[in-house]
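Aim 2 progress update. The chain analyzed this quarter is reproduced below.
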Amino acid sequence: MRLLTTHHTELLILTFLIITYGISLIEKFADWKGTVAYIRETFENTFVSSFIKPLLAILVFLETITLFFLTVGLFQLFRGNENENALIGCTYSCYTILYMLIGQRVAKDYQGATSLAVYFLISVFGVYILV
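Predicted structure tokens:
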């Protein structure tokens, strides 16, 4: 119980990010064709339109790595007060969101780019409190 009172902020941030990336990956894998079609439509009039699948593969890779480190970090924080993997996970989360932000800006989806700011701030705050 002491862990929950001393690390509640870290645990909440990690849980939030795990849910975010977990559901994002599940959605992508559950409807891969639909995801590719949506991304292709979003970027159809941009210079990246011919690179949709490799760029989406990079995003899935980043989300998977991020989710892995966040999950391991959560369990390590529970077990032994170690926060190194949680810090790596939050850092990767920042990079992943920046990658998505570039895509939103290229697609000129300014509202989508704005909504990423919330996730970025939560990730940066996670980095800040885990350092």
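The helical segments are 2-6, 8-30, 32-42, 52-80, 84-106, 110-130. The chain has one domain: 2-130. These observations will guide the mutagenesis experiments scheduled for the next reporting period.
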